[in-house]
Amino acid sequence: RHCTDTVCCVIFIVVILGYIALGIVAWVHGDPRKVIYPTDSYGQFCGQKDTLNENKTILFYFNILKCASPVVLINLQCPTTQLCVSKCPDRFATYIDVQASYRYKPDQWNYFKQFCKPGFNNPRKSVAQVLRDEDCPSMIIPSRPFLKRCFPDFSTKNGVLTVANQTTFRDGRGKTRNVTDLREAANGINNVLDARSVGMKIFEDYAISWYWILIGLFIAMIVSLLFLVLLRFTAGVLFWIFIFGVIGIIGYGIWHCYWEYDHLKGIPGSDLTVYDIGFQTDFRVYLQLRQTWLAFMIILCVVEVIIILMLIFLRNRIRIAIALLKEGSRAIGYIMSTLFYPIVTFILIAICISYWAVTAVFLATSGEPVYKVMANQTLCKYANLTCDPETFNTTNVTKLCPGAQCTFAFYGGESLYHKYIFIFQLANAFVFLWLVNFAIALGQCTLAGAFASYYWASRKPADIPLWPLFSSFGRAIRYHTGSLAFGALILAIVQLIRVILEYLDHKLKGTQNSFTRFLLCCLKCCFWCLEKFLKFINRNAYIMIAIYGKNFCTSAKEAFFLLMRNVVRVAVLDKVTDFLLFLGKILVAGGVGVLAFFFFTQRIPVFAQEAPTLNYYWVPLLTVIIGSYLVAHGFFSVYAMCVDTLFLCFCEDLERNDGSTTKPYFMSASLHRILGKKELSPKKA
């Protein structure tokens, strides 16, 4: 063993150090409070400690009618003054009414002015000037806080949309408006509020049933283990039952087609051809033609013959595939620790995801407050231009565009760091993909090394090394970090290109240029195929690295040509393995899901008293089913890696050895018997 792809190893380490440095820089400049706290028109956080807004945690919109939708309220800037308040208004009121009665009803003015700009306390100022300068809102309506923002308190009464049981309100500008003017916002907000209600109920269900969910996942783990152990005895039986079942179903289909074909004989119109009746939207018309059933019968006959011929000519390779599946089950039985290695991969990927997400948030919040001109007039030429709130009142903008304001828009900046934030985000995403693929590659190489030590042991299990999984992990880290990083780098580049293509496709979705859409579709398809091919090559390259300790390119080349020399065996083994593992996942997830369904619906008399009372029984049920499938997938991915490793070892064994005393085979006795004497000769290898 020696270190492989050392240049890539050095680059990988440097990139990791640079990634750490990027995270530190992002953490220094970023401020996640910009995501947590809403920001008013002055760029100040609502609810931030040790500020004037410490007790004002909610954002209030002067004129919510100017906001197009809740999405604009949350993500973009609404073209109206936004103010931090301690609580949302709980009544209808207009500035005109409050100003007219402030002398003899000071309580109304004191209540209303808390929704005006800080420090404004001049009810004698003319209404036109107040509304022009947006010192106070023209109206307030009953609202409630949601996402730390004041939204109108919508409700429905007898199917009619209301706010505080009223269907109309005065807008403070001399007009009486209907609550339906807020319908666009109301629909989205009510949907969000309904979703919040459902979310709370789902959270309650999880809080009550989490213990039973864990028990269900534990049962799924036990069932998955039992399935893998029993595969050495049931792999062949399950496969042949499925094959003969397919043959039987197709045979029944042939008989049914012939019966329909014969039954339609003599019926008027049944002898017409498909060409005669042309295209029909009601496809049942075609089922009244004898020609249709004849075509179905011919197609099924061809499929039946192909399957039977494949079974006849590929029977020996199918037997080898089943024997390798049984051998894989036996290998896992001897190295049980491999079943729990996916936990290590999961932890590494979870760390990568967490670091990427935190760094992305800090990068996204690294900017300084940017202020823009918000004008009520649509023809104002200064609208959406950047401005300085400290000098804004001394400019001519307020004269040329009456009512215009310099309000906070978003976070950005003009420094070198802020100009390259987008590049840093791309780098963050790219290194994240690289690290995730490296974690997966490390797991594949580690498992391959452990299972290869099983295959190449002369006497099984006596010659299997002590702690094969830990030894393989140490070899992969010590000698082959560069090779694993090289393979992960190639895959990460392709995945980043796919992400960029998806982004471009999303941006150009509304375009009418059909050629551009066609070109993007072709590129997405090509890179999807390339990614699948690279994953296949990388997987087998890591196996060869674990076996022989060569660099990535050499291992990938040798693995590729070895597989091409055994392409039929590869295809048969791949499909047989996929079928059995898919069947296992369905059995585990379906079996545990059925058990969970009967339990959570209190249909098991013995546990009826133990079952929790839920708002939605499907919440823990779906969690158990999906979790069971993922648990089974984790265990079966180890099994699939085991089978792939044993297959490459088996092919190498056939090519390097001839079964003689000087070059004995390392394969098991069952594989030895299946191959027979003829295929054991060197010429047939």
List keywords for this structure.
two-stranded antiparallel sheet; disordered C terminus; transport; 685 residues; mainly alpha; 7% strand; membrane; globular
How is this structure best described in words?
This protein has 685 residues and is mainly alpha-helical. Among the domains are: 58-174, no CATH class; 369-412, no CATH class. 62% of the residues lie in helices and 7% in strands. The chain has helices at residues 6-29, 33-36, 70-75, 95-100, 106-112, 127-133, 183-263, 274-277, 290-313, 315-334, 341-364, 397-400, 416-419, 421-455, 468-479, 481-507, 514-548, 552-565, 567-600, 618-656, 669-679; strands at 58-61, 82-85, 93-94, 139-140, 143-146, 149-152, 154-157, 160-163, 168-170, 176-178, 368-374, 405-412. The strands form 6 sheets. The chain has a two-stranded antiparallel sheet. A hairpin with a 2-residue loop joins strand 5 (143-146) and strand 6 (149-152). The longest helix is centred in the first third of the chain and has 81 residues, at 183-263. The protein is globular and about 110 Å long. The two termini are 28 Å apart. 32% of the residues are buried. Residues 68-76 and 677-685 have low confidence and may be disordered. Keywords: Antiport, Cell membrane, Glycoprotein, Membrane, Transmembrane, Transmembrane helix, Transport. It catalyses: choline(out) + n H(+)(in) = choline(in) + n H(+)(out). One of its GO terms (molecular function) is antiporter activity. Choline/H+ antiporter. Choline transporter. One of its GO terms (cellular component) is plasma membrane.
